Fold:
Amino acid sequence: MTSRSGRRRIPEATVERLPVYLRLLDEQFDVGVTRISSEEIAELAAVNAAKVRKDLSYLGSYGTRGVGYEVEFLLCQIKRELGLMQEWPVVIVGAGNLGQALAGYGGFMQRGFLVGGIVDVDSEKVGTDVGGVTVSHVDELAGLVAANDISIGVVATPGSAAQAAADALVAAGVSSILNFAPHGITAPHGITVREVDLSVELQILSYHEQRRANARRAATLRAVPGAGRGGQVS
Amino acid sequence: MTSRSGRRRIPEATVERLPVYLRLLDEQFDVGVTRISSEEIAELAAVNAAKVRKDLSYLGSYGTRGVGYEVEFLLCQIKRELGLMQEWPVVIVGAGNLGQALAGYGGFMQRGFLVGGIVDVDSEKVGTDVGGVTVSHVDELAGLVAANDISIGVVATPGSAAQAAADALVAAGVSSILNFAPHGITAPHGITVREVDLSVELQILSYHEQRRANARRAATLRAVPGAGRGGQVS
DNA sequence: AGGGCTTTGTGAACGCGTGCACATGCGTGG
DNA sequence: CCACGCATGTGCACGCGTTCACAAAGCCCT
Structure:
């Protein structure tokens, strides 16, 4: 009875690391590694070994003391927990540059997902082929979602259309949304939303970059305390 | 002296939210809003109001009690703190689908960044125009970085080339890397790296989706207690 | 001009995630 | 068959981030 996958709740922080473990285990498996220790996983994932063990222990006791983890078996368990034993069809809203890139993204279908449809408001784009899938009009979204039993939608529209796209997805019956548009979206309770904003990521980098620059400047000033005229530095 | 921007250390969690505030404040400013309360910001950013105030207090006491925050002024302060008073040139490695999408990404240059160069290993792509920028060969990366004083690099290659791209960026003198490739990269200490993996995001959604499905199934089983005889619930 | 209303800024408590350290338990070799 | 060694699994303490609750403080209205 406890073997059912909906076991205990897994901390969100762990859920966010499981895909990383999955990826690196996949790579190790391809190279022929059959057994792996938490230490090695930690090394590859750049995290603490104890954290790896704790994370994996949420899936069950699938390691062997004194030995480590069976790579293939562990892969399977993580996939199961993440719901990747099945292929999830995904619908992409927006067939622009970004939508096309996502549709053609290598690590997309290779990892448990397939493009179940692409829609766009622009009737110019409707009918064109993007990564092997024909672009449909956004009006057909609901039909597409129902026909393919799609529960995950990806927003790849300009920021101004993001909320409308999200609303359309929710209305169509999607229950998880991945938003790439540079504009936050809101969804009713019960809908899982994840935001991936390129400019947000860049701005975080910008912050650290500026910090580094400031630190350098401060160090220079400290080395040359003249405040006005500066002497030679080395 | 304390007005210098390199003031106190700001928690990473706050740094990750500042760009979100920045974006929504920008939107509000465009709509003509000149003053805004922490409550309103919280509403728009879907976070707690106290968190907003604490986050903003790290920048300084820029609010007016009983009134709120001056939108334009606050915008300026956040930009300053994030290092966005200047435009950061960015170099993109990989001129494939993803690289092209990123180069043409709307919320890119509009938010303090500009494409300082795009490089690719494929000499077929070299010389072509992507979003107004000519693709250079990856061998010219170091020169490009030096000439444009670039410190931020974006990896948009296939997963197999990600580490090589990152190494090339580091060798060229870049100190911050944003990685979109579906493969973790490692960089020397002192280099800031952020990973954005599409499949990781989708897999997290998949987890929640499966959870939802399990919850539904459990609810159904409970409602139809065929397993043993069960009494009515409620 | 002054009182009251509103909203900020922040001290303090809470909760979660992280990391340490060790007991548990399995494989292995003698 | 037993003893040793090694890696897992986990209780516990610590630290960070979140949240509450309230005092400080500015504006507006009377």
In short: Chain A touches chain B through 71 residues (CB under 8 Å). The radius of gyration of chain A is 23 Å.
